[in-house]
């Protein structure tokens, strides 16, 4: 199990259903201390009671340092994370990761947000911030009226900049219409079902550097592919998820690797590898050792797997 | 060698648990051979508390480094963002390993140079890991405890 000192300790201050099947949780420090800051678009990993770890976008205002808000849609047929979140009670302590942002808000002069269902969550902090800064943006929010989250808040914050698409009323979001209206400087953000994002990416190849997407809390960052670690001594296999470091994956699997700086300098975590091709990102290991050792805190993997002498 | 210098405390900072932002406070209570009352390493709630280290009871950081970060790298790092307990001025921290220093009425023994940690970038959102190499402060053991305050004199013991 992860050690509490290696995560942020929070207590659930409030749970509230904000739409059918969507529960909002407010997490704070047990003593009311400020929480580590986050930027709009960030997510945290929640450590659930039975050991599951799940990412959820932060959906509160980043200017509020006292709380993290997450909104979780219950997926009865999912892998279990959302059911466990919905079972959490006010007053329970929950460990969470530091916020990480794989969907940062740019300084573009105009921002277009497209949300499908619970994909609205990472956009809430962006809307708070852009409203506060007087920036221009527009929100296209596709969800059924009967289960759309945050509607009252959005109507107050967006003031005429939100277009709703309610399938129950026959209102379909036509991506072509939104994309064709974007000028040469606008940046497009999309978070929603895989099908929506796939269609969007297929239609925006001409402006790829201005398109930012997230699949319900996990970024589609093509620069960091998932791979697996094979542990030679214990004959175990540990998956490394997209956006996760080798060290984080080993820790999540209860593999004890001593580490200190976690920035590729101290070499405390230096580990022998036996097969595979590492991507060395440390800045201090002698070249003579790179054919045999890597640093799990920063090293990546150039293939589908790497075998460590662990 | 006895160096001749005299410095001052310009900021005092604590956090009760790992990762939490540091808060600047007007005074700190130092407990000999333990740490700082209310700080994460005295209560064994620090990120590295699973690797106990006697010489990590209090940490210090030079205000001059904050100014150098701004001057050389254009980075604004506030005194409560460097994650050490004491912000000093006119104290040559990198030269003090193995020496004893006095802060107000308290006595410290400098044990080792602090090294930067990647977490500081995660917490602050600023690219400061590499700029802080070789100037990330000083770890020390508390030999004589008491109250230290902003404005206290720091000098060789």
Automatic annotation (TrEMBL), chain A:
A GO molecular function held by the record: oxidoreductase activity
InterPro entries: 2Fe-2S_ferredoxin-like_sf, 2Fe-2S_ferredoxin-type, Beta-grasp_dom_sf, FAD-bd_FR_type, FNR_nucleotide-bd, MRET, OxRdtase_FAD/NAD-bd, Riboflavin_synthase-like_b-brl
SUPFAM superfamilies: 2Fe-2S ferredoxin-like, Ferredoxin reductase-like, C-terminal NADP-linked domain, Riboflavin synthase domain-like
Domain 2Fe-2S ferredoxin-type: residue ranges: 227-310
CDD domains: fer2, PDR_like
Keyword match Protease: no
Transmembrane residue ranges: none
Domain called FAD-binding FR-type: residue spans: 5-106
Keywords annotated in UniProt: 2Fe-2S, Flavoprotein, Iron, Iron-sulfur, Metal-binding, Oxidoreductase
Keyword Iron annotated: yes
Top-rank taxon: Bacteria
Gene3D superfamilies the UniProt entry points to: 3.10.20.30, Nucleotide-binding domain of ferredoxin-NADP reductase (FNR) module, Translation factors
PROSITE patterns: 2FE2S_FER_2, FAD_FR
Name of the featured protein: Oxidoreductase
Source species: Ruegeria pomeroyi
Taxonomic path: Bacteria, Pseudomonadati, Pseudomonadota, Alphaproteobacteria, Rhodobacterales
Automatic annotation (TrEMBL), chain B:
Pfam families according to UniProt: MOSC (PF03473)
Record GO terms (molecular function): catalytic activity; molybdenum ion binding; pyridoxal phosphate binding
Taxonomy, superkingdom: Bacteria
Location of the MOSC domain: 23-157
Record-linked InterPro entries: MoCF_Sase_C, MOSC_domain, Pyrv_Knase-like_insert_dom_sf
Segment forming the signal sequence: none
Protein name: MOSC domain-containing protein
Phylogenetic classification of the source organism: Bacteria, Pseudomonadati, Pseudomonadota, Alphaproteobacteria, Rhodobacterales
């Amino acid at each position: 199990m992860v050690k509490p000192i290696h995560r942020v300790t929070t207590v659930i201050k409030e749970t509230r259903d904000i739409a059918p099947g969507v529960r909002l949780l407010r997490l704070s420090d047990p003593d009311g201390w400020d929480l580590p800051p986050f930027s709009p678009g960030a997510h945290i990993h929640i450590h659930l009671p039975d050991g599951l770890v799940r990412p959820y976008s932060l959906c509160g205002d980043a200017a509020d340092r006292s709380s993290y808000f997450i909104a979780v849609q219950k997926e009865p047929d999912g892998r279990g994370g959302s059911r466990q979140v919905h079972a959490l009670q006010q007053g329970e302590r929950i460990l969470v990761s530091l916020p990480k942002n794989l969907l940062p808000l740019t300084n573009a002069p105009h921002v277009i947000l497209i949300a499908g269902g619970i994909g609205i969550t990472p956009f809430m902090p962006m809307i708070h911030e852009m409203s506060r800064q007087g920036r221009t943006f527009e929100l296209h929010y596709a969800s059924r009226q009967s289960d759309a989250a945050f509607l009252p808040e959005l109507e107050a914050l967006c003031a005429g900049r939100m277009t709703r698409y309610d399938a129950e009323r026959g209102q379909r979001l036509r991506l072509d219409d939104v994309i064709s209206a974007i000028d040469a400087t606008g940046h497009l953000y999309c978070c929603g079902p895989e099908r929506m994002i796939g269609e969007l990416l297929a239609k925006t190849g001409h402006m790829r550097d201005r398109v930012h997407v997230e699949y319900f809390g996990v970024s589609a960052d093509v620069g960091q592919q998932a791979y697996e670690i094979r542990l030679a001594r214990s004959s175990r296999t540990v998956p490394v998820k997209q956006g996760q470091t080798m060290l984080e994956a080993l820790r999540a699997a209860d593999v004890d690797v001593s580490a200190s700086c976690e920035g590729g300098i101290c070499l405390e975590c230096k580990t022998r590898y036996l097969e595979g091709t590492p991507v060395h990102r440390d800045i201090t290991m002698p070249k003579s050792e790179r054919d045999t050792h890597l640093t799990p805190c920063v090293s990546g993997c150039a293939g589908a797997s790497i075998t460590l002498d662990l | 060698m006895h160096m001749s210098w005299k410095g001052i405390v310009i900021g005092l900072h604590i956090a009760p648990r790992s990762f939490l932002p540091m808060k600047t406070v007007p005074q700190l209570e130092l407990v000999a051979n333990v740490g700082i009352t209310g700080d994460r390493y005295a209560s064994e709630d620090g990120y590295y508390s699973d690797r106990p280290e006697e010489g990590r009871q209090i940490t210090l950081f030079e205000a001059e480094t904050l100014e150098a970060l701004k001057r050389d790298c254009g980075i604004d790092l506030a005194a409560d963002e460097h994650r050490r307990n004491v912000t000093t001025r006119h104290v040559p921290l990198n030269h003090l390993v193995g020496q004893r220093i006095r802060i107000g009425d308290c006595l410290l023994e400098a044990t080792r140079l602090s090294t930067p940690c990647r977490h500081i970038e995660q917490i602050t959102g600023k690219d400061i890991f590499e700029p802080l190499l070789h100037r990330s402060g000083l770890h020390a053991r508390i030999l004589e405890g008491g109250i230290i305050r902003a404005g206290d004199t720091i000098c060789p013991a």
